[in-house]
Amino acid sequence: MTETEQIIVGLISSAGQSKSLAFEALKKVKTGEYDEARKILEQAKEADLQAHTVQTKLIQAEMSGSGNKPEVGLLMVHAQDHYMTSQLARDLIEELINVFEAKEGK
C-alpha cells in the first residue's frame, strides 16, 4: 500500500468513526439522554475534523502542481463518499436531537 493510499484509508477510518458515533448519539436520544447524546456528538465532530484535515491535505497536494498529486481512483472516491455521508449523518442527527429535545420541552 502506498503512502497516499494509507492516508486515504485514514480518511475512511475517521469518517466511519464519526458516522458510528453520530448513530450512537441517536441511540441516546431514544432513552432521553440528551446531554450524553451531545457529548457523543462532539466526539463525532472531532473524528470528522480529523477526516477534514486529511481531505484538505489531499486537496492541497492535488493543487500544488508538484509530482505528489494523488491519484483519483476508486479508493479516493470511496473515501469521499464516506466523508460526505458521515457529515450528513452527523448534521441530521444533531438536528434530530434538537427536535426531540424541544418536543419534550427541555
UniProtKB/TrEMBL annotation:
Free-text cofactor note:
Binds 1 Mg(2+) ion per trimer.
Positions of Mg(2+) binding: 81
Q: Which domain of life is it from?
A: Bacteria
Q: Please give the Pfam families that the UniProt record associates with this protein.
A: PTS_IIA
Active site positions: 78
Instruction: Using the record's annotations, give every residue carrying the modification Phosphohistidine.
Output: 78
Instruction: Tell me which cofactor or cofactors this protein depends on.
Output: Mg(2+)
InterPro entries per UniProt? PTS_IIA_lac/cel, PTS_IIA_lac/cel_sf
Q: Which UniProt keywords apply?
A: Magnesium, Metal-binding, Phosphotransferase system, Sugar transport, Transferase, Transport
Q: What's one GO MF term for it?
A: metal ion binding
PROSITE patterns per the UniProt record, alphabetical: PTS_EIIA_TYPE_3
Q: Which GO terms describe its biological process?
A: phosphoenolpyruvate-dependent sugar phosphotransferase system
Protein known as:
PTS lactose/cellobiose transporter subunit IIA
